[in-house]
Amino acid sequence: MSVIIKEVVTKKDLLKWVRFPNELYKENEYFVPFLENDEVNTFTKEKNPSYEFCETKLFLAFKDEKIVGRIAGLINHAYNKKWKQNAIRYTRFDFIDDNEVSEKLLSAVVEWGKERGYSEVMGPIGFNDTDHQGMLIEGFDQLNMSITFYNFPYYADHMERLGLTKAADWIEFKIKCPTEVDTRIERLARHALERGEYVTVTYTDRKALYKDAFEALQVIDEAESILFGTVPLTPAVIKYLIDNYISMVNLDYVCAVKDTEGRIVAFGAMVPSLAKAFKKANGKMFPFGIAHMLKALKSSNDTLEMFLVAVDPEYQMFGVPAILMDTLLRKCIENKVEYCETGPMLETNKAVHGMWRYFEKEQHKRRRCYCKAI
Questions:
Q1: What is the largest CA-CA distance in the chain?
Q2: Which residues pair with 123 in a beta bridge?
Q3: Using the 8-state DSSP alphabet, how is residue 49 labeled?
Q4: Residue 255 pairs with which residues in a beta bridge?
């Protein structure tokens, strides 16, 4: 029987669309499910403020009346305006190893793009830089992070067969946490602090962090504004991110650096890895998912995920990164953390890669954004 493509228009179909990867990867030991509620909210206009500048169409593929694939087409008006592009995006592209399935799903997005006058398709890439981006092309034998998606190796073969080519790559590192303070980082941090131009800020309650979080995300937005695919984070989007993620942060691993006027010039937030907890919960918060997550968020977790690490571009050469790293590293040593995993970083972002030059590390994953003219 041929493949049938249907647009997702009901809440019931949206839930099927969200749950499809859990079925596709149920036997895969490296796949980490996302939280269903988060994904449903992400693709609900009334919940996600990114719909202020985005439009989406979601599609399911059926074969023999069984769901065999899914995709989301995404028009990001902010991206096209900022970068003077004429592109439609795709995201959440999952499918069985069947050429007809992947071809018809992508064609559904391409046809929508053509109807709207777009001349390029690109993806996988989401609503903004904090959303999931890139298709895994290296690291299939690694557990994915709670903030990234996993996919089978055959996906890349399908992309090439469909005529898509590389637009950008993101790489990820697994960093070995030392057992002692690195004297090189300590020395750089001390010299920067002794000049009296900066103050290290740590947090003991979430109310204080909440007050600084908006400014911190503005710093991160500015630092990443020149990077591929990024769009400005609106005040509503920043608030949405804060409300969704601040409860997940372990305050041990949050640090800001402020100048003498109290302005945040650097910010870092790492989270005890939730990957194994998400896997045990199978994407559901209840009845037992919340318990797995609360246990994972404790300081005894030996693996951290780097959620947000950024330094104001004007301050990247003045020892500020060392202040941030020295503060967070000391807490990692105190809590006997063994590894830190970075999120996806553009392979061309040498400034960020340089932050890890003092550490034993392994580049263990690579993700790709594809594109083609339509």
A1: 72
A2: 370
A3: G
A4: 202, 268
